[in-house]
Amino acid sequence: MAxxxxxxxxxxxxxxxxxxxxxxxxxxxxxxxxxxISLDEACGLCKQYNINLYAYCPTVDMNKYTTQKYIxxxxxxxxxRANGKFYTGDLNQMxxxxxxxxxxxxxxxxxxSKKTYVTDHPEIIFVIIMILFITLIIIEKRIKL
Length: 145
What we know:
By secondary structure, the chain is an alpha/beta fold. 45% of the residues lie in helices and 12% in strands. Strands 1-2-3 form a three-stranded parallel sheet, sandwiched between helices.
């Protein structure tokens, strides 16, 4: 699982526990290969570092690799070890519920917002290229190459 790298890629994870951090995780909980970190350990780290965990697992009907045993163990780890939110079933309903849950976290309490300013003006480059092209045509007509 890529949990370990994801958790430790948050800036200042060990010293700034007040910052809101969110991980969205979707899996069928079927381990394919060697685990770097177990689901239980990853959920424990989420709780330790105050990371909001939102997890999704397809139902048995939706995924041929999923079993009820995997779903139940995934749910227990997310809800009990990480105090996270667990979703399964319909993707449309799940995404709506997940977005609403995230909106209700303290990330929505931020008083300031970042603004993006677009300063790129490609029309200037286009005009310069057109002037150079017209100049080239005029020079070519006078020289008669």
